[in-house]
Amino acid sequence: MLFGQPVAGNPTQFMIEKAFAHHGLEWRYLTLEVAPEDLADAVRGMRAMGFRGGNVTKPHKVAVIELLDRTSDAASRMGAVNCIVREGKELVGENTDGKGFIESLRGVTDPAAKRVVLLGAGGAARAIGVELALAGASAITVVNRTLEHGRQLVDLLNAKTGVSATLAAWDGEFPVPEETQVLVNATCIGLNDPEARVPVKFDACPPGRVVADVIASPPDTRFLAEAKAHGATTLDGLGMIVNQGAIGFKLWTGVDPDKTMMREAVEEFLGL
Ligand code: NDP
User: Fold this and answer.
1) Most Cβ neighbours (<10 Å): which of 23, 137, 144, 272?
2) Ligand 1 lined by 149 (C-beta under 6 Å)
3) Counts of helices then strands in the chain (DSSP H, E)
4) 61 catalytic, yes or no?
C-alpha cells in the first residue's frame, strides 16, 4: 500500500501491480489517501490486515518513524522513511528514494570519489545526499533557496556520514562550479511544469558531466535539456522511481523485478 496526502496521480500502484502480474504474483498494492491525524490508525490497520509492506509519501515520511518497530541504518541517518517492510511481527522502516537514485546513477557513473552539487535540501535531497555519501562521494555542495534548510542538510551530512559537505547560497543564477562531476536537481522545480527553469548557469561546467533530475513528470525537463545542450550526460527522474520501486518490490516479495517492464508501466501511466 501507499499512504500519502495527496496521492492522486502517483504512478506507484500502476507500476507495482503490473510487475506483480508480470511475475505471476497474486498480490495487490493499494493507493490510500491518509490524513496526518489518521496515520497511526492506518499503520495499526496495515499490521492487523497483514500487509507485507508498502510505501509512505508526503506528508508522512518523518511522522511514520515512531509508529514502526525499527528503521534501517540509512533511514535512521536521514530521519525519513518511504518504504515499510514486514519482518515477522515487526514493521521496519527503509528509505529507498536515495538508493533508487544511486542505482539509476550507477547506470552512467560510479558515485565513489565524485564531487557533487546537490540543488535542494528537502526530503528527496536528504535521501540522495545521505546515499551519495554512503556510496563514497568525496564532497557534496548543497545549494538551497532557504539557507536554514540547506544548513540543516549540510550539518546532517557532516555529522552522520564521512562526506565533506558545504553550503552555497542560491541567490539568482547559481554558477555550476567547473570541478563539479555530478549535478542533481532535487528541488520541485519542473514538477508538472515543463517550462519551469532551474536557475543555474552551466557556462563554467565542461562537457561530459553527469546531470540528474528527480522530476519524473514530465521526465524531459527544461533543466535536463539545458544540461544536454552543454554536453552533459543526463539522467531523468523516471530511473529513480523505477529503481526505488524495484528495491521495495524485492524487499516485499523476494523477487527481483523486471525494471524495463516497470519503466514502460510508468511511461504508460504518465501517457508518454
Ligand atoms: P520538499 O518540499 O521536501 O523540498 C523541496 C525543495 O525544493 C526544497 O529544497 C525547496 O527549497 C526547493 N524549492 C522548491 N521550489 C523552489 C524554487 N522555486 N526555487 C528554488 N528552490 C525551490 O520536496 P521533496 O524533497 O520531497 O521533493 C522534491 C521533488 O522530488 C518533488 O518534485 C518530487 O516529485 C521529487 N521526487 C522524485 C522522486 C523520484 O523517484 N523521481 C522521489 C521523491 C521525490 P526551500 O528549502 O527553499 O523551500
Assistant:
1) 137
2) yes
3) 9, 14
4) yes
